Amino acid sequence: xxxxxxxxxxxxxxxxxxxxxxxxxAMYAVFTVYPLxxxxxxxxxxxxxxxxxxxxxxxxxxxxxxxxxxVVRTAAFNxxxxxxxxxxxxxxxxxxxxxxxxxxLPGRALWRALIFIPVVTSWVIVSYIFAYLFNAQDGLANSxxxxxxxxxxxxxxxxxxxxxxxxxxxxxxxxxxxxxFVIFLAALDGMPRELVEAGRxxxxxxxxxxxxxxxxxxxxxxxxxxxxxxxxxxxxxxQVYLMTQGGPYDSTQVLFTWAYQQAFTNFExxxxxxxxxxxxxxxxxxxxxxxxxxxxxPGG
Length: 300
What we know:
By secondary structure, the protein is mostly helical. Helix content is about 75%, strand content about 0%. It has helices at about 5-40, 60-65, 70-100, 110-120, 125-135, 140-150, 160-190, 195-200, 205-215, 220-235, 240-245, 255-265, 270-295. About 25% of the residues are buried.
C-alpha cells in the first residue's frame, strides 16, 4: 500500500482541528448566530407567531415605540442601578476575600468552597429561598425586625419599590461574589510575590502596596471581571421574574423581564426583538468603552 504523501499528511494535520471544532461551531451558528440575526430581522416587522399570518414591514417603528415607552425608561434605570450597585460590590467583596484567603489561614479550602457554592446554585432555587426569607408573613427578615421592634412586624418587602429592588440587589451580590472571588484568587496566586515583598521592604504601607503594585499587576483580570460582570448585570432576569414579576406597577421592572413579558405575555414579538437589539448594542458599546478607558489608564 502506498504511503500518503507529505503534502497529504500535512493537509490532514491542518484540517483535523477544524473538523473537531465543526460540530461545536455548527451548534453555535444554529443556536446563537442565527437567532441573533433572526431577532434583528423580526424587529423590523409586525411579526406574528401564528402560521399564515401577515407580517408587514414596519421599519424603525418598533424602535421608536421602545424609545418612547415609559416602562422601558423605568426598566433601564433599574437595570443600570442594579449594575452600579452589584458589580462594584461583587468585585470588592471578591477581591477582599481572595486577598484574605491567599494567606495560610486555617480551613482555607473550606472557606473557598463556601464562598463559591452560591455560584453553582440554581438561580431559581436562590430566588425562591430569598423570596421565602423576605416573606411578608413569616420570613426571617420580618422575624429579625420584630425582635428589634418588640412587636410583630409584617413588611411586604417584595411588594414595595425600594425594598423589592434592594432584595434583588442582595441576591445578585450574594450569588455573584464567588465568581469574582475565584478569578481574583487565581490572579493573586499567579502574581510574582517578589514585587510585594520588595514593596514591603521599601516601607510601603498596605494601601500604597495595593494601589501601586498589586492592582496594576492584576489590571487585565480587573478589566476581564468588570466587563463580564456588567454584561451579566445587563441580563438580570430570573430573580426579578420569580420574586417580583416587575411589580408593584412595573417599579422593579428590568429590561429583560419587560422584553419577556412583551413577547410571551402580550405576544408583541417585534417590540421585544427591537428592545433586545437595543440592549445588545448598548452593552457592546459600554464594554468596548470600559476596555478602552482602563487600557488608557494603566497606572490606576
